[in-house]
Design brief:
alpha/beta, single chain, 343 residues, binds nicotinamide-adenine-dinucleotide, 11 helices
Length: 343
Amino acid sequence: MSMMGQTLLVTGATGYIGSHTCVCLLQAGWRVVAVDNFSNSSPAVVSRIEQVADREMRFHALDVRDHGALLRLLQREAVSAVIHFAGLKAVGESVSRPLDYVDNNVCGSVSLLRALHLSGVRKLVFSSSATVYGDPVSVPIAETAPLSVTNPYGRSKLMVEQVLADLAQSDPEWRMATLRYFNPAGAHPSGMLGEDPRGAPNNLMPCIAQVAVGRRPALSVYGNDWPTPDGTGVRDYIHVMDLAQGHLAALERLYSHAGSFTVNLGTGHGVSVLQAVAAFERACGRSIPLRIAERRPGDVAACYASPARAEALLGWHAQRSLDEMCSDHWRWQHKHPHGYTGH
Ligand SMILES: NC(=O)c1ccc[n+]([C@@H]2O[C@H](COP(=O)([O-])OP(=O)(O)OC[C@H]3O[C@@H](n4cnc5c(N)ncnc54)[C@H](O)[C@@H]3O)[C@@H](O)[C@H]2O)c1
């Protein structure tokens, strides 16, 4: 389907997943209006996206909680759909700053939804998370699995999912795609875009990469006595470019079919911490020193997706291997040991 000429609003566009998705959108012919408040990203990313895509996008420094500014933007631009990435995502931080997570993730989404409602925009792609499955009863996890959350971050995602379901129920014009991401990893193959966490990273792949590049002395492995084949936690790592493509597939479905849907975006394969470390060592040619630490509260043994619904509904499945995730992640980290701005 050609999206030439359609205008898309992307919130949180300069973040990790947003930046890679913007590149794919621009290259597919979308006109992109991007916003971010830079609370977890850098202004330098805007020109990187344009450089990598070899296309221009319109960018506005804006907080999605600023309802008036959003509304004015939507009145100026002929936006026909939105991808809503903007939000805070650190589980540990959400435990110590729960109000910030309600404010940014829930109130920010409500502010956006009101602005969309008033401007007549009725197509939305929302970044949810596998964290809404809590401690899964069984794996692989299908979208029909029971939902339960173990921390304020997860609760904020589940609350927004519920608001979206109520809104879709209230007005059949809405077309919403709720995408539950598993564990994004990797970087753009150019080495020009990648994950640039502020402070200590929370996710495994950037932690390994920072050890490999010498920014941290050793990788903390949180528990080696989980009920998994090698005792370490098992997750579903998905290449950020596969994830980005999943957004394009979801958008195409919103333009071609009425109604709303929820899909997992994962590979369907569980990978342990030790397997991920071995793959990264192959990619970077260095050894990663490990330190076994206590299990973290709220962590689970194994979490990986059933990607069957995404395949059936969107014709989408992840295509890139763990080795590709590691080599792309390493290329980015090696070229930018201290991220975009060297902070
Ligand atoms: N990375 C993951 O592991 C993961 C997994 C599941 C879901 N998600 C969700 O996907 C989305 C994107 O994640 P990411 O990894 O790219 O995170 P990120 O922090 O790199 O990107 C989020 C972007 O949103 C911006 N932002 C935050 N609050 C904002 C606000 N109020 N107004 C405007 N901009 C704001 C930040 O500055 C940042 O650039 C988030 O909603 C996150 O919760 C991420």
